[in-house]
Specification:
Strand content: 15-25%
Oligomer: single chain
Largest sheet: 10 strands, mixed
Helix content: 25-40%
Bound molecules: guanosine-5'-diphosphate, 6-O-phosphoryl inosine monophosphate, magnesium ion
Length: 424
């Protein structure tokens, strides 16, 4: 591998952080390319648990370089806090992390605007993480955002921050929402900017120089394909492209330089936030999977909605990402179940359809058509190779990958590093 893009193939929380951590051992540079601190990537190292929001999960391997690319929206206070937390826990960060001059900065007013927008939507709310992601990307596209480069120049940053804060406060005032205390916020921002400024660099040059020098580059996606602002269940999506193409536009390496796309999916399905969920189990079985899988949000703590594996939507995700390789996670969560269901097609208006519709009304109207397979009713938690897996587990994996396309590269049977193995 000299360059690999890792993306989630469902609604996020597929276990990307854990897989990035495992792959980082073989990589030289790990690059985040989209999203912001709406992400929560969990990595367990020994008996320690880390939840990374903006910093690439590769940071937990000393000696590896990490970059936050131009496609990311970076909460200034959030990033400073995340760095301080990791440094407190003994990791070197400041000397290994670079932040793009072109990334967009997220401030408190973005979070307030996010909250305001959700409140206005009422019952139709998206169920965002309230991290200001939508308003920050809106500012970027509207060409009024503040970019990473400003962190190097406190005078310029203050000028830009106060102008944008005033604009945001006008909007909040017009909607009767409590305003941001600009002076108090600036006091916090200037301290954080002092810490982050020295890390700011042209990461596009850095990533291309690393590639030319033969270094192995791993791109860490956040969220998942069904949350992609184009390909997901719009408008119940995040505000960035979460699919593999975004690694090029948000990470700075051209498509011709990407060797592999590794798609990560869980052996079942979860979703946090609102929006349609084709195979949702809003019943005791859903609750059972939530408990077995510890399905609670890593960023917000919200219970995740759970359901059966959806091969139709996952096949679509494999296609749009061009995922040639797969990592399948959380297989162990299904260990105790008698019967497993796989959604192999949908029924829409009395017709069987084989592909995921693109229109929300149709997505919301489909009924899953299931195929049943027997469970394996024994532990897979200690499996270290394909042959260690029970036959029923192998049959399940063969069936879902036959339906989705893509070749199994990695299997994960627990949250720990050691509970992972490569499949040839
Ligand atoms: P991410 O956002 O894709 O990085 O995923 P999250 O960290 O939000 O959620 C995945 C959760 O599942 C975390 O708590 C991981 O520690 C855990 N996890 C990852 N892989 C496995 C696995 O194979 N089995 C089990 N039981 N847990 C896993
Ligand atoms: P990781 O990287 C799961 C969801 C939110 C909401 C929608 C929009 O850990 O997989 P946003 O705050 O982005 O405007 O919210 O997207 N969402 C995630 N769901 N995992 C994530 O990240 C998510 N990031 C955002 O719950 O439904
Ligand atoms: Mg997560």
């Amino acid at each position: 591998m000299s360059s690999m893009v890792l993306v989630g193939l469902q609604w996020g929380d597929e276990g990307k952080g854990k897989i990035i951590d495992v792959l980082s051992e073989k990589a030289d540079v790990v690059v985040r390319f989209q999203g912001g601190n709406n992400a929560g990537h969990t990595v367990e190292v020994g008996d320690q648990k880390f939840v990374l929001h903006l910093i690439p999960s590769g940071i937990l391997h000393e000696g590896k370089d990490c970059m936050i690319g131009n496609g990311v929206v970076v909460d200034v206070l959030g990033l400073a806090e995340e760095i301080a937390d990791l440094e407190k826990r003994g990791f070197s960060v400041a000397d290994r992390l670079k932040l793009s001059t072109r990334c967009q900065l997220v401030f408190k007013y973005h979070r307030l605007l996010d909250g305001m927008s959700e409140a206005k939507l009422g019952e139709d709310k998206i169920g965002t993480t309230m991290r200001g992601i939508g308003p920050a990307y809106a500012d970027k596209v509207n060409r009024v955002g503040i970019r990473g480069a400003a962190l190097r120049d406190p005078v310029e940053l203050e000028k830009l921050f106060r102008a944008q804060a005033a604009r945001a406060n006008d909007i909040l005032a017009a909607h009767g929402v409590e305003l941001m205390d600009v002076d108090a916020e600036w006091d916090l921002i200037k301290v954080a900017a002092g810490k982050l400024g020295p890390m700011v660099a042209d990461t596009v040059l850095d990533v291309n120089n690393a590639f030319t020098a033969g270094k192995k580059i791993l791109f860490e996606g956040a969220q998942g394909t069904w949350l992609d602002v184009d390909y997901g269940t719009y408008p119940y999506v995040t505000s960035s492209n979460t699919s593999s193409g975004a690694a090029c536009t948000g990470g700075g390496l051209a498509p011709s330089r990407i060797d592999h796309v590794l798609g990560v999916y869980k052996a079942y399905t979860t979703r946090v936030g609102e929006g349609p969920f084709m195979t949702e189990l809003d019943n005791a079985m859903g609750e059972r999977i939530r408990m077995l899988g510890g399905e609670f949000g890593a960023t917000t703590g919200r219970p995740r909605r759970c359901g059966w594996f959806d091969a139709v939507a996952t096949r679509y995700a494999v296609m749009v990402n061009g995922a040639d390789l797969l990592a399948i996670t959380k297989l162990d969560v299904l260990d105790d179940l008698d019967t497993l269901k796989i959604c192999v097609a949908y029924e829409l208006n009395g017709q069987r359809i084989e592909d995921m519709p693109s229109d929300l009304a149709e997505i919301a109207a489909v009924a899953p058509i299931y195929e049943e397979m027997p469970g394996w009713r024994c532990s897979t938690k200690d499996a270290q190779c394909w042959e260690d897996l029970p036959e029923a587990t192998r049959n399940y994996l063969n069936r879902i990958t036959e339906l989705t396309g893509g070749k199994i590269h990695i299997l994960s049977v627990g949250p720990k590093r050691a509970q992972t193995f490569f499949v040839d």
